[in-house]
Design goal:
By secondary structure, the protein is an all-alpha fold. It has one domain: Metal-sensitive repressor, helix protomer (Methane Monooxygenase Hydroxylase, Chain G, domain 1). It is 85% helix and 0% strand. The two termini are 17 Å apart.
């Protein structure tokens, strides 16, 4: 991963870490459960977006290159793994 996508991914990861630490502090401080859940959903949504960016990059670079090398079976196996774990 290079360029703007890498920078965006790293920025989003740092933000997600910050949000997750906030959830940890909320739990330690016995904050209202609904507030903790809302903050946790923000973390989950952030991680899903990061996953999408990385998957898009992988499809556009690594898997495209593998297809050009004739590695169709490996690409299909990898895509099945993504589907199995519902990587978005």
């Amino acid at each position: 991963m290079q360029g703007p996508k890498k920078e965006d991914t790293l920025r989003r990861l740092k933000t997600a870490v910050g949000h997750l630490k906030a959830v940890e502090r909320m739990v330690e401080a016995d904050k209202y459960c609904a507030d903790v859940l809302l903050q946790l959903q923000a973390v989950i949504a952030s991680l899903e977006k990061i996953s999408s960016i990385i998957l898009e990059n992988h499809l556009e670079t690594c898997l495209r290159a593998a297809m050009r090398r004739g590695e169709e079976e490996e690409v299909i196996a990898e895509l099945k793994t993504f589907m199995k774990y519902k990587i978005k």
